[in-house]
Design goal:
Largest sheet: 7 strands, antiparallel
Structural class: alpha+beta
Distance between the termini: 41 Å
Number of helices: 24
Strand content: 15-25%
Number of strands: 29
Length: 786
Amino acid sequence: MSKLGSKDQETGSERVRGLSQCEEHDACGVGFVADLNALASHRVVTQALECLSCLTHRGGVDADGASGDGAGISVQLPAEFFAREARRLNSGFQPHWRTAVGVFFFPTDGVTRARAMFAAEEAVRNRGLYVAGWRQVPVNPGALGPQARESQPAIWHLLVGQPADQEREFEQILYLTRKEIERRIAEAGITDCYIPSFSSRNIVYKGLMAPSQLGIFYKDLVDPEFKTSAALYHQRYSTNTSPTWFLAQPFRLVAHNGEINTLLGNRNWMRAREAVLDHPIWGNESEWLKPVIQPSGSDSASFDNVLELLTRSGRTVHHALLMMIPEAWEDSVEIPADVQAFYHYHSCLMEPWDGPAAMAFLDGPLVGAALDRNGLRPARYTITRDGLVVLGSEVGLLPIEPERVQEKGRLGPGQILLVDLEHKKIFKNEQLKKQVSHAQKYRKWIRNNMTFLPRFKAEKCGLLDAGEERFANSDRPGFVALQRAAGYTQEDLDLLITPLAGMKKEPVGSMGDDTPLAALSTRPRPVYHYFRQMFAQVTNPPIDPLRESLVMALNLYLGARHSVLVESPEHARMIRLESPFLFDAELRELRRMGEEKFKPATVSTLFLASQGPEGMTAAINRIKQECVAAVKQGSSILILSDLGVDVDHAAVPMLLVVGAVVEHLIAEGVGNKADLVLETAEAWESHQFACLVAYGAAGINPYLALEVVADLASRRELGDVSVPRAIENFRAGIETGIKKIMSKMGISTLASYQGGKFFEIIGLDPDVVKEFFPDTRSLVGGRKLV
């Protein structure tokens, strides 16, 4: 779809963006209107549409000049309006029943639509709910542009009642029902069918249109009897997905301005968590919850899918939101201890969904908004003396007389605002976080269950006399041979390792790179050379890891994960690493500390060199089987080791091993039961560390690189830098390099980067990519590695 002013064509002004404060007109528009004191009214709908119309400049427009990228509104379900419609459709609908409405986008083909309707009705009745009937949503297609009109779905409402004898919470039944409908429709081979909302709390009206067209297209929105106390609105500016009716926002709970940079990793780990979705609420029906994230959804839609699962499983919407987009708590001295414990505990359950994000949300009586840890999207609010709360991406979205204004403000990085319409209260950032952090004994759980791996000084790493004791002249040929076997070159020593160890930073290179692509090179090249780092595009500004050091974090966790739907002390039974870079002594300490509770299992990645490629293939299969067996026997830390390379034994490339093991563990349903720690000779630069972490590793002990650094320092190749200082410099330089690589994607936490596969592969055979690195972009074929 050709568009005018599309963000897919990034402008110069968009690239030159400050990190501490974003431009005012550079992304989607989002916000809400809520009235604390008045009864539900049509005025709130009118005000929300007025605010939305003020955000027209934030949306893209198709080449036809009339079809927008998408706009929508979500409101508290007007219960009286739809109860009246239910009685009109079906006289058997009882006045005292609770009403819910499912909004359906159907294919325009009548036969296909009838099949989908039948599947939906069958699922509703299976859950003990009453089908009042189908209501064709009154619309005005003439309000749409040509492209939007051509792709317009058939829009229907399914009205449902909950009989009084139902014991389970209505929203939970509706959630299960919708998941069952989606599966039944998919199994029937029906495409182009989507359910924007199915709830007794919210209802969504959205589509491929500009804001000014929304109230004209949907006639319900101008009906005076259509009343609500809160409305969420969104104007989309399509970036990483093409505009469609289905991807217009709001979604079922949120409306999002920004992008989720960590999306692929979040999706992968959520897929792994599906093996354990135990919760008393769902019992043996948890299978209906899968897949949690709907295929082909955008980043915002995927976020909404997970937020909905967490919320329908018993958490409040703001609790779940703080869990998914936590503020930068790791090094803060201002955040109260209880709130830090809240974030610390939940970091054991889920990695942050990181990226520029302003999230507005609506779940019945709860409406609010939150910013991500960087605060790179605007969210301004106005509170009037008579209880009106307006929040949006702009100032002055709604004309309000100055004498009515009680307070004006904006959300800062990591802050949240909540309006509780049921209790008629407004909760500011500190107050709300204090409330949720006291809900459980998070500090006690962490204190009693979490293990912290100490960060050793170089004096304890066991390499201080490496050059003098371990590499005498008689040993040097073997030492050099070991480096060659791992892929080191003299250039690596001179241009990469020496600056890192000597100056604690990566060398500065030219903008160009005339090194041949690995696939075209006539020399052996490490697997890592086939991988190119991805970077944030469009409106995702890269982060300056120096200026924004407060929001950057390298800590990771080791141990078995439990169901993300429940909270218990057992969830905090983890080992925390302050960095993925482990000295030899730290790896030994990890083995010692974890022996009783985590049962670390060491799996060798070696094979007989004489067996060639067949031997490597057999070794990969053996490694996968040994890892699964170890996990099933109770091990929650798998140490993959390539120690022992010699004339007779070669090592499977560690990146291949990591990719193979992670995918196999997930396929076997134990991907959330263990973490990988690597004891490898292959890691000596930040790119290699980033690759290994991005494909699932948590801890990396680069034992050979440490020996090389110690050897260089002991032979005075680094000048006056001592061995301990060289080793410390090397680790600090690698960690700085990892942060720089993360920042290219606009990602702040390594926990979000882990498993995210933020690379493009150039020159590997498609079968290799499919087996070891699925979901990684690879546009050209190339070499078979096994």
